[in-house]
Amino acid sequence: MHDPDSLPITPDISIPRSELTYRATRSGGPGGQHVNTSSTRIELLWDLSHSRVVSDEQRERLRAKLAPRLDAEGMVRVVASDHRSQQQNRVAADERLAALVRHALHVPKKRRKTKPPAAAKERRIKAKKLQSERKRNRRVDLD
């Protein structure tokens, strides 16, 4: 089980709740009077530039990958307004931030160049010759 005072991202990284700022605002969309009177939309802000849990290398990677979600102060912003309850939206915002950071921290494996097998080259050439033959047979001789 994970520590309730932190948001788990990967097995070795979890963001302390003290680094997260929650802001409740009024949600838009359908819902009638309930929407107009309750602040259920949650905005979750994480100060990436001052975070103690990520290394400098990870911080640069996150900055590059999450650039559209960063504001001028270097805060990552996630919004959740899917549910009618503020608590459910808070959980949804946590999950979105965790997924976002997890995805941004993932380093893809480097691609190793490989040659196509000889049989594949042969099949390709054979298919090209067959197509060429078909087109040649369609030609009408005007002489």
Describe the structure.
There is one protein chain. This protein has 143 residues and is an alpha+beta fold. It has a domain at 6-105: Double Stranded RNA Binding Domain, CATH 3.30.160. It contains four helices and five strands, in the order βββαβαβαα. The protein has helices spanning 33-37, 56-65, 86-105, 118-138; strands at 6-10, 13-16, 20-25, 41-47, 75-80. The longest helix has 21 residues, at 118-138. The mean pLDDT is 87.
Secondary-structure blueprint:
Blueprint: E1 6-10, E2 13-16, E3 20-25, H1 33-37, E4 41-47, H2 56-65, E5 75-80, H3 86-105, H4 118-138
Antiparallel strand pairs: 1-2, 3-4, 4-5
Core attributes:
single chain; elongated; two-stranded antiparallel sheet; alpha+beta; Double Stranded RNA Binding Domain; 20% strand; three-stranded antiparallel sheet
Quick overview:
This protein is of the alpha+beta class and 143 residues long. The protein has helices spanning 33-37, 56-65, 86-105, 118-138; strands at 6-10, 13-16, 20-25, 41-47, 75-80. A three-stranded antiparallel beta sheet has the order 3-4-5. It has a two-stranded antiparallel ribbon with strand order 1-2.
| Rounded mean pLDDT score | 87
Name of the level-1 CATH class of the domain at 6-105: Alpha Beta
Shape: elongated
Task: Tell me the CATH architecture of the domain at 6-105.
Answer: 2-Layer Sandwich
Helix content: 25-40%
Question: How much is the radius of gyration in Å?
Answer: 27 Å
State the end-to-end distance.
85 Å
Instruction: Please trace the helix and strand order, writing H or E for each element.
Output: EEEHEHEHH
Low-confidence stretches: none
State which percent range the strand residues make up: 15-25%
Quote the CATH topology of the domain at 6-105. Double Stranded RNA Binding Domain
Q: Give the number of helices.
A: 4
